[in-house]
Design goal:
elongated; ABC transporter transmembrane region fold; 21 helices
Length: about 625
Protein backbone atom coordinates (compact mmCIF):
# COMPACT_ATOMS: atom_id res chain seq x y z
CA UNK A 1 0.00 0.00 0.00
CA UNK A 2 1.40 3.40 -0.87
CA UNK A 3 1.79 5.85 2.03
CA UNK A 4 -1.14 8.14 2.72
CA UNK A 5 -0.38 11.67 1.51
CA UNK A 6 -0.42 14.39 4.16
CA UNK A 7 -3.64 16.34 4.58
CA UNK A 8 -3.71 19.88 3.29
CA UNK A 9 -4.25 22.65 5.84
CA UNK A 10 -7.77 23.67 4.82
CA UNK A 11 -7.61 27.30 5.91
CA UNK A 12 -4.44 28.53 4.20
CA UNK A 13 -3.10 25.94 1.78
CA UNK A 14 -3.73 26.48 -1.95
CA UNK A 15 -2.53 24.30 -4.78
CA UNK A 16 -0.47 25.73 -7.62
CA UNK A 17 -3.44 25.21 -9.94
CA UNK A 18 -5.67 27.31 -7.68
CA UNK A 19 -3.07 30.07 -7.52
CA UNK A 20 -2.62 29.99 -11.29
CA UNK A 21 -6.37 30.02 -11.96
CA UNK A 22 -6.80 32.99 -9.63
CA UNK A 23 -4.06 34.82 -11.51
CA UNK A 24 -5.67 34.11 -14.91
CA UNK A 25 -9.04 35.23 -13.57
CA UNK A 26 -7.61 38.51 -12.22
CA UNK A 27 -5.82 39.09 -15.54
CA UNK A 28 -8.98 38.57 -17.60
CA UNK A 29 -11.43 40.21 -15.18
CA UNK A 30 -9.95 43.40 -13.66
CA UNK A 31 -11.93 45.43 -11.06
CA UNK A 32 -15.01 47.36 -12.31
CA UNK A 33 -14.19 50.48 -14.28
CA UNK A 34 -14.80 53.95 -12.89
CA UNK A 35 -16.86 56.60 -14.64
CA UNK A 36 -13.94 57.68 -16.84
CA UNK A 37 -13.46 54.10 -18.06
CA UNK A 38 -10.35 53.37 -16.00
CA UNK A 39 -10.41 51.26 -12.86
CA UNK A 40 -9.45 53.08 -9.65
CA UNK A 41 -6.68 50.55 -9.14
CA UNK A 42 -5.35 51.10 -12.67
CA UNK A 43 -5.45 54.89 -12.26
CA UNK A 44 -3.53 54.75 -9.00
CA UNK A 45 -1.13 52.14 -10.40
CA UNK A 46 -0.44 54.27 -13.47
CA UNK A 47 0.40 57.26 -11.30
CA UNK A 48 2.61 55.16 -9.07
CA UNK A 49 4.39 53.63 -12.05
CA UNK A 50 5.22 57.05 -13.45
CA UNK A 51 6.41 58.31 -10.07
CA UNK A 52 8.47 55.18 -9.50
CA UNK A 53 10.13 55.39 -12.90
CA UNK A 54 10.93 59.06 -12.37
CA UNK A 55 12.50 58.15 -9.03
CA UNK A 56 14.56 55.47 -10.76
CA UNK A 57 15.65 58.01 -13.38
CA UNK A 58 16.84 60.32 -10.61
CA UNK A 59 19.12 57.55 -9.34
CA UNK A 60 20.34 56.77 -12.85
CA UNK A 61 21.00 60.47 -13.51
CA UNK A 62 23.76 60.35 -10.90
CA UNK A 63 25.71 58.23 -13.40
CA UNK A 64 24.87 60.31 -16.49
CA UNK A 65 28.48 60.76 -17.65
CA UNK A 66 29.12 57.01 -17.55
CA UNK A 67 25.94 56.44 -19.55
CA UNK A 68 27.00 59.09 -22.09
CA UNK A 69 30.37 57.38 -22.57
CA UNK A 70 28.72 53.97 -23.02
CA UNK A 71 26.30 55.46 -25.58
CA UNK A 72 29.22 56.98 -27.45
CA UNK A 73 30.89 53.58 -27.68
CA UNK A 74 27.60 51.98 -28.76
CA UNK A 75 27.10 54.60 -31.48
CA UNK A 76 30.60 53.97 -32.83
CA UNK A 77 29.91 50.22 -32.94
CA UNK A 78 26.56 50.80 -34.67
CA UNK A 79 28.09 52.99 -37.40
CA UNK A 80 30.88 50.46 -38.07
CA UNK A 81 28.46 47.54 -38.25
CA UNK A 82 25.74 49.24 -40.29
CA UNK A 83 28.09 50.34 -43.05
CA UNK A 84 29.51 46.84 -43.64
CA UNK A 85 26.71 45.59 -46.02
CA UNK A 86 27.06 48.77 -48.12
CA UNK A 87 30.79 48.12 -48.39
CA UNK A 88 30.16 44.53 -49.46
CA UNK A 89 27.65 45.66 -52.10
CA UNK A 90 30.10 48.24 -53.44
CA UNK A 91 32.85 45.60 -53.61
CA UNK A 92 30.59 43.38 -55.71
CA UNK A 93 29.48 46.14 -58.10
CA UNK A 94 32.73 48.12 -58.46
CA UNK A 95 35.19 45.24 -58.36
CA UNK A 96 33.73 41.79 -58.99
CA UNK A 97 31.12 42.94 -61.55
CA UNK A 98 33.35 45.54 -63.27
CA UNK A 99 34.60 44.17 -66.65
CA UNK A 100 36.80 47.21 -67.21
CA UNK A 101 39.23 46.18 -64.46
CA UNK A 102 42.10 43.79 -65.03
CA UNK A 103 42.46 40.72 -62.81
CA UNK A 104 45.43 42.28 -60.98
CA UNK A 105 43.50 45.50 -60.39
CA UNK A 106 40.48 43.51 -59.15
CA UNK A 107 42.72 41.59 -56.71
CA UNK A 108 44.27 44.83 -55.47
CA UNK A 109 40.96 46.63 -54.95
CA UNK A 110 39.29 43.54 -53.51
CA UNK A 111 42.08 43.22 -50.96
CA UNK A 112 41.51 46.85 -49.98
CA UNK A 113 37.80 46.19 -49.40
CA UNK A 114 38.58 43.03 -47.43
CA UNK A 115 41.12 44.80 -45.23
CA UNK A 116 38.68 47.66 -44.66
CA UNK A 117 35.92 45.22 -43.69
CA UNK A 118 38.30 43.29 -41.45
CA UNK A 119 39.41 46.49 -39.74
CA UNK A 120 35.80 47.57 -39.21
CA UNK A 121 34.92 44.16 -37.71
CA UNK A 122 37.92 44.11 -35.35
CA UNK A 123 37.44 47.69 -34.19
CA UNK A 124 33.69 47.17 -33.77
CA UNK A 125 34.21 44.01 -31.69
CA UNK A 126 36.85 45.71 -29.52
CA UNK A 127 34.64 48.75 -28.89
CA UNK A 128 31.64 46.51 -28.21
CA UNK A 129 33.61 44.48 -25.66
CA UNK A 130 34.69 47.71 -23.97
CA UNK A 131 31.07 48.93 -23.99
CA UNK A 132 29.87 45.65 -22.48
CA UNK A 133 32.47 45.86 -19.70
CA UNK A 134 31.55 49.45 -18.85
CA UNK A 135 27.84 48.57 -18.93
CA UNK A 136 28.34 45.76 -16.42
CA UNK A 137 30.22 48.18 -14.17
CA UNK A 138 27.44 50.75 -14.48
CA UNK A 139 24.79 48.14 -13.65
CA UNK A 140 26.75 47.10 -10.56
CA UNK A 141 27.05 50.70 -9.37
CA UNK A 142 23.36 51.50 -9.87
CA UNK A 143 22.33 48.24 -8.21
CA UNK A 144 24.63 48.90 -5.27
CA UNK A 145 23.21 52.40 -4.90
CA UNK A 146 19.61 51.12 -4.97
CA UNK A 147 20.37 48.29 -2.55
CA UNK A 148 21.94 50.73 -0.11
CA UNK A 149 18.97 53.13 -0.40
CA UNK A 150 16.42 50.36 0.10
CA UNK A 151 18.32 48.74 2.96
CA UNK A 152 18.68 52.03 4.83
CA UNK A 153 15.03 52.92 4.21
CA UNK A 154 13.74 49.54 5.39
CA UNK A 155 15.81 49.90 8.57
CA UNK A 156 13.79 53.03 9.33
CA UNK A 157 10.39 51.59 8.37
CA UNK A 158 7.57 51.76 10.93
CA UNK A 159 7.51 48.53 12.95
CA UNK A 160 3.92 47.77 11.99
CA UNK A 161 4.82 48.02 8.29
CA UNK A 162 7.89 45.83 8.72
CA UNK A 163 5.78 43.19 10.41
CA UNK A 164 3.50 43.21 7.36
CA UNK A 165 6.42 42.68 4.99
CA UNK A 166 8.05 40.03 7.21
CA UNK A 167 11.73 39.10 7.22
CA UNK A 168 11.55 36.98 4.08
CA UNK A 169 9.79 39.77 2.23
CA UNK A 170 12.58 42.18 3.14
CA UNK A 171 15.19 39.71 1.88
CA UNK A 172 13.16 39.19 -1.31
CA UNK A 173 13.16 42.92 -2.04
CA UNK A 174 16.88 43.31 -1.34
CA UNK A 175 17.80 40.32 -3.52
CA UNK A 176 15.17 39.12 -6.00
CA UNK A 177 13.51 42.44 -6.81
CA UNK A 178 16.77 44.34 -7.11
CA UNK A 179 18.43 41.57 -9.11
CA UNK A 180 15.54 41.87 -11.57
CA UNK A 181 16.72 45.46 -12.16
CA UNK A 182 20.09 44.21 -13.40
CA UNK A 183 20.47 45.40 -16.98
CA UNK A 184 17.53 47.82 -16.78
CA UNK A 185 19.79 50.68 -17.90
CA UNK A 186 20.78 48.60 -20.92
CA UNK A 187 17.15 47.65 -21.60
CA UNK A 188 15.53 51.02 -20.95
CA UNK A 189 18.17 53.41 -22.33
CA UNK A 190 21.19 52.07 -24.15
CA UNK A 191 19.61 49.32 -26.27
CA UNK A 192 16.63 51.39 -27.53
CA UNK A 193 18.81 54.42 -28.34
CA UNK A 194 21.41 52.34 -30.16
CA UNK A 195 18.73 50.29 -31.94
CA UNK A 196 16.92 53.41 -33.15
CA UNK A 197 20.22 54.91 -34.27
CA UNK A 198 21.11 51.72 -36.19
CA UNK A 199 17.69 51.70 -37.84
CA UNK A 200 18.02 55.36 -38.78
CA UNK A 201 21.50 54.98 -40.25
CA UNK A 202 20.60 51.76 -42.07
CA UNK A 203 17.39 53.20 -43.48
CA UNK A 204 19.17 56.36 -44.65
CA UNK A 205 21.77 54.26 -46.47
CA UNK A 206 19.14 51.97 -47.99
CA UNK A 207 16.93 54.89 -49.03
CA UNK A 208 19.83 56.63 -50.71
CA UNK A 209 21.02 53.40 -52.32
CA UNK A 210 17.71 52.01 -53.63
CA UNK A 211 14.41 53.70 -52.56
CA UNK A 212 12.18 50.98 -54.02
CA UNK A 213 13.82 48.20 -52.00
CA UNK A 214 13.72 50.43 -48.92
CA UNK A 215 9.95 50.82 -49.34
CA UNK A 216 9.52 47.03 -49.44
CA UNK A 217 11.32 46.64 -46.11
CA UNK A 218 9.28 49.41 -44.49
CA UNK A 219 6.00 47.78 -45.58
CA UNK A 220 7.05 44.57 -43.82
CA UNK A 221 8.58 46.20 -40.77
CA UNK A 222 6.01 48.82 -39.71
CA UNK A 223 2.87 46.71 -39.11
CA UNK A 224 4.84 43.93 -37.44
CA UNK A 225 6.54 46.29 -34.97
CA UNK A 226 3.26 48.04 -34.10
CA UNK A 227 1.43 44.76 -33.49
CA UNK A 228 4.28 43.43 -31.33
CA UNK A 229 4.17 46.40 -28.97
CA UNK A 230 0.41 46.05 -28.55
CA UNK A 231 0.76 42.35 -27.77
CA UNK A 232 3.56 42.64 -25.22
CA UNK A 233 2.07 45.59 -23.27
CA UNK A 234 0.04 43.56 -20.68
CA UNK A 235 3.03 41.36 -19.76
CA UNK A 236 3.93 43.78 -16.94
CA UNK A 237 0.93 42.59 -14.91
CA UNK A 238 2.19 39.02 -15.20
CA UNK A 239 5.59 39.85 -13.78
CA UNK A 240 4.11 42.07 -11.07
CA UNK A 241 2.02 39.14 -9.85
CA UNK A 242 5.07 36.86 -10.15
CA UNK A 243 7.24 39.05 -7.92
CA UNK A 244 4.40 39.40 -5.42
CA UNK A 245 4.07 35.62 -5.11
CA UNK A 246 7.85 35.25 -4.90
CA UNK A 247 8.00 37.72 -2.01
CA UNK A 248 5.26 35.80 -0.20
CA UNK A 249 7.15 32.55 -0.72
CA UNK A 250 10.39 34.05 0.63
CA UNK A 251 8.49 35.30 3.68
CA UNK A 252 7.03 31.84 4.27
CA UNK A 253 10.45 30.20 4.03
CA UNK A 254 11.90 32.62 6.58
CA UNK A 255 8.90 32.14 8.87
CA UNK A 256 9.02 28.34 8.62
CA UNK A 257 12.69 28.01 9.49
CA UNK A 258 12.38 30.68 12.17
CA UNK A 259 9.72 28.51 13.82
CA UNK A 260 11.20 25.14 12.86
CA UNK A 261 10.85 23.88 16.45
CA UNK A 262 7.08 24.42 16.28
CA UNK A 263 6.95 22.74 12.88
CA UNK A 264 8.65 19.65 14.27
CA UNK A 265 6.71 19.66 17.53
CA UNK A 266 3.42 19.40 15.61
CA UNK A 267 4.79 17.09 12.87
CA UNK A 268 4.06 19.62 10.14
CA UNK A 269 7.15 18.94 8.01
CA UNK A 270 5.22 17.28 5.19
CA UNK A 271 2.49 19.93 5.21
CA UNK A 272 5.04 22.74 4.99
CA UNK A 273 6.86 20.84 2.25
CA UNK A 274 3.59 20.58 0.30
CA UNK A 275 2.90 24.29 0.79
CA UNK A 276 6.39 25.15 -0.44
CA UNK A 277 6.11 22.82 -3.44
CA UNK A 278 2.73 24.31 -4.42
CA UNK A 279 4.06 27.89 -4.23
CA UNK A 280 7.22 26.98 -6.12
CA UNK A 281 5.21 25.21 -8.81
CA UNK A 282 2.88 28.21 -9.08
CA UNK A 283 5.90 30.46 -9.65
CA UNK A 284 7.09 28.12 -12.39
CA UNK A 285 3.64 28.29 -14.02
CA UNK A 286 3.60 32.08 -13.88
CA UNK A 287 7.09 32.24 -15.36
CA UNK A 288 6.12 29.86 -18.17
CA UNK A 289 2.98 31.91 -18.84
CA UNK A 290 5.14 35.02 -19.30
CA UNK A 291 7.55 33.11 -21.54
CA UNK A 292 4.67 31.74 -23.65
CA UNK A 293 3.16 35.18 -23.95
CA UNK A 294 6.35 36.75 -25.27
CA UNK A 295 7.38 33.72 -27.36
CA UNK A 296 4.52 34.47 -29.79
CA UNK A 297 6.32 37.65 -30.81
CA UNK A 298 9.68 35.92 -30.97
CA UNK A 299 8.32 33.24 -33.27
CA UNK A 300 6.70 35.77 -35.61
CA UNK A 301 9.90 37.79 -35.84
CA UNK A 302 11.99 34.69 -36.44
CA UNK A 303 9.74 34.06 -39.48
CA UNK A 304 9.61 37.70 -40.60
CA UNK A 305 13.37 38.26 -40.95
CA UNK A 306 13.92 35.32 -43.39
CA UNK A 307 10.68 36.34 -45.15
CA UNK A 308 12.08 39.84 -45.64
CA UNK A 309 15.20 38.34 -47.26
CA UNK A 310 12.99 36.30 -49.59
CA UNK A 311 11.03 39.45 -50.50
CA UNK A 312 14.25 41.37 -51.20
CA UNK A 313 15.53 38.50 -53.35
CA UNK A 314 12.27 38.29 -55.34
CA UNK A 315 11.62 41.99 -55.90
CA UNK A 316 15.33 42.75 -56.22
CA UNK A 317 15.65 40.04 -58.88
CA UNK A 318 12.80 41.56 -60.88
CA UNK A 319 14.42 44.97 -60.56
CA UNK A 320 17.68 43.47 -61.74
CA UNK A 321 15.97 42.30 -64.91
CA UNK A 322 14.69 45.81 -65.75
CA UNK A 323 18.01 47.42 -64.79
CA UNK A 324 16.88 49.33 -61.69
CA UNK A 325 19.00 47.28 -59.28
CA UNK A 326 22.40 45.61 -59.30
CA UNK A 327 23.61 42.32 -57.86
CA UNK A 328 25.66 44.23 -55.32
CA UNK A 329 22.62 46.21 -54.22
CA UNK A 330 20.54 43.06 -53.82
CA UNK A 331 23.31 41.33 -51.84
CA UNK A 332 23.93 44.36 -49.68
CA UNK A 333 20.19 44.92 -49.21
CA UNK A 334 19.82 41.38 -47.85
CA UNK A 335 22.52 42.29 -45.33
CA UNK A 336 20.63 45.47 -44.50
CA UNK A 337 17.53 43.39 -43.83
CA UNK A 338 19.18 42.18 -40.64
CA UNK A 339 20.42 45.68 -39.93
CA UNK A 340 16.87 47.03 -40.10
CA UNK A 341 14.86 44.13 -38.74
CA UNK A 342 17.36 43.16 -36.02
CA UNK A 343 17.33 46.48 -34.13
CA UNK A 344 13.53 46.78 -34.33
CA UNK A 345 13.20 43.21 -33.07
CA UNK A 346 15.68 44.10 -30.31
CA UNK A 347 13.46 47.03 -29.28
CA UNK A 348 10.41 44.76 -29.19
CA UNK A 349 12.32 42.13 -27.22
CA UNK A 350 13.71 44.62 -24.73
CA UNK A 351 10.23 46.11 -24.35
CA UNK A 352 9.07 42.73 -23.03
CA UNK A 353 12.09 42.49 -20.72
CA UNK A 354 11.45 46.09 -19.68
CA UNK A 355 7.98 45.17 -18.40
CA UNK A 356 9.55 42.56 -16.13
CA UNK A 357 12.10 45.02 -14.79
CA UNK A 358 9.50 47.77 -14.34
CA UNK A 359 7.40 45.42 -12.22
CA UNK A 360 10.43 45.12 -9.92
CA UNK A 361 10.91 48.91 -10.05
CA UNK A 362 7.36 49.33 -8.77
CA UNK A 363 7.95 47.04 -5.79
CA UNK A 364 11.29 48.64 -4.88
CA UNK A 365 10.27 52.28 -5.26
CA UNK A 366 6.84 51.77 -3.70
CA UNK A 367 8.78 51.06 -0.52
CA UNK A 368 11.28 53.87 -1.04
CA UNK A 369 8.37 56.31 -1.38
CA UNK A 370 6.81 55.22 1.92
CA UNK A 371 7.55 57.46 4.92
CA UNK A 372 10.24 56.61 7.45
CA UNK A 373 9.49 55.43 10.99
CA UNK A 374 8.93 58.92 12.38
CA UNK A 375 10.09 61.71 10.15
CA UNK A 376 11.49 64.70 12.05
CA UNK A 377 9.64 67.99 11.46
CA UNK A 378 11.68 70.94 10.13
CA UNK A 379 11.65 72.65 13.54
CA UNK A 380 12.82 69.55 15.48
CA UNK A 381 15.51 70.02 18.12
CA UNK A 382 18.13 67.72 19.62
CA UNK A 383 17.27 65.81 22.76
CA UNK A 384 18.24 67.48 26.04
CA UNK A 385 21.49 66.37 27.61
CA UNK A 386 19.75 65.51 30.88
CA UNK A 387 16.37 63.87 31.47
CA UNK A 388 14.43 65.72 34.18
CA UNK A 389 10.85 64.62 33.61
CA UNK A 390 8.76 62.47 31.28
CA UNK A 391 5.03 63.27 31.09
CA UNK A 392 2.12 61.40 29.52
CA UNK A 393 -0.54 64.03 28.85
CA UNK A 394 -3.92 62.43 27.99
CA UNK A 395 -2.24 59.95 25.68
CA UNK A 396 -4.38 57.80 23.36
CA UNK A 397 -3.06 55.18 20.97
CA UNK A 398 -4.46 52.59 18.58
CA UNK A 399 -2.71 50.25 16.15
CA UNK A 400 -5.61 50.85 13.75
CA UNK A 401 -8.16 53.66 13.39
CA UNK A 402 -10.96 51.28 14.38
CA UNK A 403 -9.69 50.47 17.86
CA UNK A 404 -7.75 52.07 20.70
CA UNK A 405 -5.18 50.25 22.83
CA UNK A 406 -4.40 53.12 25.25
CA UNK A 407 -7.14 55.39 26.62
CA UNK A 408 -6.51 58.83 28.16
CA UNK A 409 -3.28 57.83 29.88
CA UNK A 410 -1.80 60.41 32.28
CA UNK A 411 1.45 59.94 34.17
CA UNK A 412 4.33 62.11 35.36
CA UNK A 413 7.67 60.36 35.80
CA UNK A 414 10.45 62.36 37.50
CA UNK A 415 14.08 61.76 36.63
CA UNK A 416 15.57 58.68 38.26
CA UNK A 417 12.20 57.09 39.09
CA UNK A 418 11.44 53.43 38.43
CA UNK A 419 7.99 52.80 36.97
CA UNK A 420 6.57 49.27 37.07
CA UNK A 421 3.85 48.59 34.51
CA UNK A 422 1.61 45.74 35.64
CA UNK A 423 -1.61 44.19 34.44
CA UNK A 424 -3.03 41.22 32.62
CA UNK A 425 -1.84 40.20 29.17
CA UNK A 426 -3.08 42.75 26.62
CA UNK A 427 -3.46 45.49 29.21
CA UNK A 428 -1.14 47.81 27.24
CA UNK A 429 2.12 47.50 29.18
CA UNK A 430 4.35 46.88 26.15
CA UNK A 431 2.49 49.56 24.19
CA UNK A 432 3.32 52.17 26.86
CA UNK A 433 6.97 51.11 26.70
CA UNK A 434 6.92 51.29 22.89
CA UNK A 435 5.51 54.82 23.05
CA UNK A 436 8.38 55.80 25.35
CA UNK A 437 10.83 54.25 22.87
CA UNK A 438 9.05 56.13 20.04
CA UNK A 439 8.40 52.99 18.08
CA UNK A 440 4.93 54.45 17.68
CA UNK A 441 3.45 57.93 17.91
CA UNK A 442 0.41 58.71 20.11
CA UNK A 443 -2.80 59.08 18.15
CA UNK A 444 -4.06 61.51 20.77
CA UNK A 445 -2.53 63.56 23.58
CA UNK A 446 1.17 64.24 24.04
CA UNK A 447 4.32 62.70 25.45
CA UNK A 448 6.72 65.33 26.75
CA UNK A 449 10.38 65.19 27.75
CA UNK A 450 11.41 68.13 29.95
CA UNK A 451 8.28 69.88 28.66
CA UNK A 452 9.18 69.31 24.98
CA UNK A 453 6.79 67.14 22.90
CA UNK A 454 8.64 64.03 21.74
CA UNK A 455 7.66 64.62 18.10
CA UNK A 456 9.60 67.90 18.28
CA UNK A 457 12.80 66.07 19.27
CA UNK A 458 14.99 64.53 16.58
CA UNK A 459 14.47 60.80 16.75
CA UNK A 460 18.13 59.88 16.34
CA UNK A 461 19.22 62.09 19.22
CA UNK A 462 16.33 60.89 21.42
CA UNK A 463 17.21 57.23 20.90
CA UNK A 464 20.68 57.93 22.31
CA UNK A 465 19.01 58.39 25.67
CA UNK A 466 17.42 54.93 25.55
CA UNK A 467 18.45 51.45 26.59
CA UNK A 468 16.11 48.49 26.07
CA UNK A 469 16.26 44.96 27.45
CA UNK A 470 13.37 42.89 26.16
CA UNK A 471 12.03 39.45 26.90
CA UNK A 472 12.80 38.36 23.33
CA UNK A 473 16.58 38.67 23.47
CA UNK A 474 18.26 39.25 20.12
CA UNK A 475 22.00 38.88 19.63
CA UNK A 476 23.88 39.23 16.35
CA UNK A 477 26.18 36.69 14.76
CA UNK A 478 29.55 37.87 16.03
CA UNK A 479 31.72 37.79 19.12
CA UNK A 480 30.50 38.46 22.64
CA UNK A 481 32.51 41.69 22.81
CA UNK A 482 31.00 42.94 19.54
CA UNK A 483 27.49 42.28 20.84
CA UNK A 484 28.10 43.97 24.19
CA UNK A 485 29.51 47.07 22.46
CA UNK A 486 26.74 47.21 19.83
CA UNK A 487 25.05 50.27 21.35
CA UNK A 488 28.37 52.06 21.93
CA UNK A 489 31.04 50.73 19.54
CA UNK A 490 33.73 52.99 21.01
CA UNK A 491 33.48 51.26 24.42
CA UNK A 492 36.78 49.81 25.64
CA UNK A 493 37.39 46.24 26.78
CA UNK A 494 37.53 47.32 30.44
CA UNK A 495 34.04 48.86 30.19
CA UNK A 496 32.71 45.73 28.49
CA UNK A 497 34.13 43.46 31.19
CA UNK A 498 32.79 45.70 33.96
CA UNK A 499 29.30 45.61 32.40
CA UNK A 500 29.48 41.83 32.11
CA UNK A 501 30.40 41.57 35.80
CA UNK A 502 27.42 43.73 36.77
CA UNK A 503 25.12 41.52 34.68
CA UNK A 504 26.55 38.34 36.23
CA UNK A 505 27.86 37.26 32.83
CA UNK A 506 31.62 37.51 33.30
CA UNK A 507 31.93 34.09 34.92
CA UNK A 508 30.43 32.05 32.08
CA UNK A 509 32.15 34.25 29.45
CA UNK A 510 35.55 33.52 31.06
CA UNK A 511 34.88 29.79 30.81
CA UNK A 512 34.37 29.95 27.03
CA UNK A 513 37.35 28.93 24.83
CA UNK A 514 37.95 32.45 23.45
CA UNK A 515 36.38 34.43 26.28
CA UNK A 516 34.97 37.73 25.05
CA UNK A 517 36.14 36.94 21.49
CA UNK A 518 33.98 33.81 21.30
CA UNK A 519 31.57 33.77 18.29
CA UNK A 520 28.02 33.12 19.51
CA UNK A 521 26.29 32.20 16.23
CA UNK A 522 23.17 33.66 14.66
CA UNK A 523 20.81 35.02 17.35
CA UNK A 524 23.23 33.64 19.98
CA UNK A 525 22.20 30.02 19.33
CA UNK A 526 25.38 28.69 20.97
CA UNK A 527 24.33 30.10 24.35
CA UNK A 528 21.55 29.20 26.75
CA UNK A 529 18.51 31.43 27.22
CA UNK A 530 19.75 32.72 30.56
CA UNK A 531 23.19 33.49 29.14
CA UNK A 532 21.67 35.42 26.22
CA UNK A 533 19.51 37.43 28.62
CA UNK A 534 22.49 38.36 30.78
CA UNK A 535 24.42 39.49 27.71
CA UNK A 536 21.44 41.62 26.70
CA UNK A 537 21.48 43.29 30.14
CA UNK A 538 25.24 43.83 29.91
CA UNK A 539 24.76 45.42 26.47
CA UNK A 540 22.34 47.91 28.00
CA UNK A 541 24.81 48.65 30.79
CA UNK A 542 27.56 49.41 28.25
CA UNK A 543 25.25 51.78 26.36
CA UNK A 544 24.83 53.80 29.60
CA UNK A 545 21.29 55.14 28.82
CA UNK A 546 19.33 57.78 30.74
CA UNK A 547 15.96 56.12 30.04
CA UNK A 548 15.86 52.38 30.58
CA UNK A 549 13.12 50.00 29.41
CA UNK A 550 13.08 46.50 30.92
CA UNK A 551 10.51 44.18 29.36
CA UNK A 552 10.52 40.98 31.46
CA UNK A 553 14.30 41.35 31.58
CA UNK A 554 14.79 38.49 34.05
CA UNK A 555 12.21 36.09 32.63
CA UNK A 556 14.77 33.66 31.21
CA UNK A 557 16.83 33.37 34.41
CA UNK A 558 16.72 30.86 37.22
CA UNK A 559 16.04 32.05 40.76
CA UNK A 560 19.71 32.23 41.77
CA UNK A 561 20.76 34.22 38.68
CA UNK A 562 17.71 36.45 39.00
CA UNK A 563 18.65 37.50 42.51
CA UNK A 564 22.20 38.30 41.43
CA UNK A 565 20.98 40.30 38.45
CA UNK A 566 18.37 42.17 40.44
CA UNK A 567 21.20 43.72 42.42
CA UNK A 568 22.96 44.66 39.17
CA UNK A 569 19.77 46.13 37.76
CA UNK A 570 19.28 48.21 40.91
CA UNK A 571 22.74 49.67 40.35
CA UNK A 572 21.91 50.18 36.66
CA UNK A 573 18.65 51.95 37.51
CA UNK A 574 20.32 54.38 39.89
CA UNK A 575 20.03 57.86 38.43
CA UNK A 576 18.08 56.58 35.42
CA UNK A 577 14.42 56.84 34.53
CA UNK A 578 13.27 53.23 34.24
CA UNK A 579 10.15 51.58 32.86
CA UNK A 580 9.95 47.92 33.80
CA UNK A 581 7.39 45.35 32.71
CA UNK A 582 7.33 42.38 35.03
CA UNK A 583 5.00 39.99 36.79
CA UNK A 584 7.21 38.85 39.66
CA UNK A 585 6.63 40.60 42.97
CA UNK A 586 10.38 40.81 43.63
CA UNK A 587 10.73 43.08 40.61
CA UNK A 588 7.57 45.14 41.11
CA UNK A 589 7.66 45.88 44.84
CA UNK A 590 10.81 48.02 44.78
CA UNK A 591 9.46 50.40 42.06
CA UNK A 592 8.93 54.06 42.90
CA UNK A 593 5.71 54.14 40.88
CA UNK A 594 3.52 51.14 40.16
CA UNK A 595 1.00 51.63 37.34
CA UNK A 596 -1.84 49.13 37.13
CA UNK A 597 -3.32 48.88 33.63
CA UNK A 598 -6.49 47.23 32.41
CA UNK A 599 -7.43 47.27 28.72
CA UNK A 600 -5.30 50.33 28.12
CA UNK A 601 -6.63 52.35 31.04
CA UNK A 602 -4.73 53.46 34.13
CA UNK A 603 -6.64 51.90 37.02
CA UNK A 604 -4.27 52.41 39.99
CA UNK A 605 -1.03 54.26 40.65
CA UNK A 606 1.28 54.43 43.67
CA UNK A 607 3.98 52.61 45.64
CA UNK A 608 3.72 48.96 46.66
CA UNK A 609 2.61 49.83 50.19
CA UNK A 610 0.10 52.44 49.01
CA UNK A 611 -1.54 50.06 46.54
CA UNK A 612 -1.59 47.19 49.03
CA UNK A 613 -3.42 49.47 51.46
CA UNK A 614 -6.07 50.18 48.80
CA UNK A 615 -6.86 46.46 48.55
CA UNK A 616 -7.81 46.94 44.89
CA UNK A 617 -6.63 45.35 41.67
CA UNK A 618 -2.95 45.38 42.63
CA UNK A 619 -3.71 43.78 46.01
CA UNK A 620 -5.64 40.97 44.27
CA UNK A 621 -2.79 40.42 41.82
CA UNK A 622 -0.22 40.17 44.63
CA UNK A 623 -2.41 37.80 46.65
CA UNK A 624 -2.90 35.54 43.63
CA UNK A 625 0.83 35.43 43.05
CA UNK A 626 1.53 34.61 46.70
CA UNK A 627 -0.99 31.77 46.58
CA UNK A 628 0.56 30.46 43.36
CA UNK A 629 4.03 30.37 44.98
CA UNK A 630 2.70 29.12 48.32
CA UNK A 631 3.88 32.21 50.18
Amino acid sequence: MPPTPPQRPAATWRSSRQIYRQFRHDLKHPPPAAADGATPADTAASTHRKDNFRAYLRVVFLFRWRIAFILMLAVAVAVLEVYQPRLIGEAIDTVLQNPALSEAEKNRQLLGYVLALLGMVVVARALDAWRDYRTHGLNARVLSRLRRLLYGHLLRFPLARLHQIKTGGVVSRLTGDLEALTGLIQIAFISPVVALLRVGIAFAIVLQWNPRLALILVCLLGPMAFGSFLWIGPIRKVWHFYFKRKGELDSRISETFGGVRVVRDFQREEAEELRYAASQHALARLNLFGVRYTSVVHILWSVLIPLANVAVLYFGGRMLFDGTASIGQITGMMGFTGMLMGPVYMIVQTFGDLQKSLAAVDRVFDHLREPDELEDPPDAVDAPAEVRELVFDHVDFGYSPESRTIHDFNLTVPAGATVALVGASGAGKTTIADLVARFYRPTGGRLLLNGIPLEKIRLHSYRRLLGIVSQDTFLFDGTIAENLAYGRPEAGRDEIVAAARQANAHEFISELPLGYDTPIGERGTRLSGGQRQRLSIARAIVADPQILILDEATSALDTHSERLIQTAIEHLEAGRTTFTIAHRLSTIARADIIVVLDKGRLMEQGTHHELMALRGRYWHMVEQQREAFGE
